[in-house]
Amino acid sequence: MSELKLVFDEPKQRKKAPSHLADLTIEERLERARDLGIPAFRVNQIATHYFTHYNDDPMSWSDFPKSLREVVKSEFLPTLITLVRSITCDNGLTRKDLWRLHDGVLVESVLMRYPERTTVCISSQAGCGMNCPFCATGQAGLTRNLTAGEITAQLVAAAKACADGELPGGPTRLSNVVYMGMGEPLANYNAVMRSVRNIVTPKPDGLEIGARSITISTVGLVNGIEKLTQEGLQVRLAVSLHTPDDELRDSLVPINSRWKVGEVLAAADRYADKTGRRYSIEYALIRDINDQAFRADLLGKLLKNRHAHVNLIPLNPTPGSKWTASRKEDEREFLRILENYGVPVTVRDTRGREIDGACGQLAAASTDLIGESSI
Hints:
Among the domains are: 21-75, DNA polymerase, domain 1; 222-348, Aldolase class I (TIM Barrel, Alpha-Beta Barrel), CATH 3.20.20.70. The protein has helices at 2-8, 26-36, 40-52, 66-75, 136-140, 148-163, 189-200, 222-229, 246-252, 261-275, 293-303, 328-340, 361-370, and strands at 81-89, 94-101, 106-113, 118-121, 125-127, 142-145, 176-179, 214-218, 236-240, 279-285, 308-314, 345-347. The chain is of the alpha/beta class. The strands form two sheets. The protein has a ten-stranded mixed β-sheet. A two-stranded antiparallel ribbon has the order 5-6. The chain contains 13 helices and twelve strands.
């Protein structure tokens, strides 16, 4: 199946991303320092500057020998992402950042401040190989996987923005991370898990954000869910289901031709059994496509005895797309039916609609502006 080949086979990478502190385990960091003749205690300093002070410029470190700063910059902290532009909405409480990677590829992250938390939504791939027709990123196709360093760099940039008070309300702490930006996280498993370890590892060697504050989304890669189940982490699993019936899901989420709805939910159940954590069912409501009452009834029957929570998402349509959000009355009826089955359900906050909020929209709109001369 040529379409499924896109899911797992990354297009040939034209320039390898520079190796970074965040790509390495603690042991690998120490080994690299030893090979470079850098004392082991300096590795602790490097990590402290990066993960605690969010500073990746050794030239500004007053507590670090000038003779080592250049080698640390090139061997541990090369620049991986560069800000192209930021756009905001919700009175500045939501900010989408467009990043240019070392090879000219564009990816997005979104920073959102709420009264009780501050969340960043990050990208794990440039583009996506899942080919879901209603998704801007999916229609762009997969350019390449991001490295753990590139994923972590988005997190560190968000943490710095919070600490520096760049969002209204003054300085805050980055508290939540969702892997719901560009890409399918479980199709870039190793890099994503390395970045997760960077998040949960205590300071100074990581960001020290609890695993329970991390959500990893997937369209239903059963093999990836099974691997995640064995990690022993308390991260939340979110399954982008979008319809309860295989016939429609085969077209909405093409990976369904490999793993059917029943298989995906069974894998999610095993994850819930192993971790004790309720998983989330992501369901984008698309007008006259998957928002009918009978589909709500099917979904309710599927989930009524499962340890799952449904997150209904009013679709954020992409420019020129035939797909659009459900009517409010259909959304309310869908919600009512699920509640009648006793299924926990909420409607997602529609933040970011006025800033090309759907993943991939800003990158797509900016490609001509930025150009691809360096790719």
